[in-house]
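Internal tracking record. Fields below are filled automatically when a chain is submitted to the structure queue. Please do not edit lines marked as system-generated. If the sequence contains nonstandard residues, flag them in the REMARKS field before resubmitting.
Queue: standard
Priority: normal
Entity type: single polypeptide chain
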Amino acid sequence: MGLKERSEIEIEIDPAGSDAEVPKSWESAEGHRFALEVLQLRVRRDILKLIGDGVRSTEEIAEKFDLDEKKTAFHLAMLEKALVAKPVSGGYRSTPTGLLYLEKVETRYSGKF
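SYSTEM-GENERATED OUTPUT FOLLOWS
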């Protein structure tokens, strides 16, 4: 099998029996570092929380966070590149990785920094 494009996402199922899909790019230190850099901005974490509750349109996200269309698109693109959000019919929603981040990191450390 040849080399894969960096933009192509490979997933594997957790061998421990969990149904959560784990993006292979998060297995590397570089993948973790990039995702954490993307999630440093509070507005992106807040967007992730919002779409973690269900599909939201870009207009709804923009209105909720008082962002213009260009900034909303930029933040959503960064969340998508970090593999924590994905476009779906009607807007965006969190990926299993995004939900895992919210469960394991954001809820545990929220308000401590």
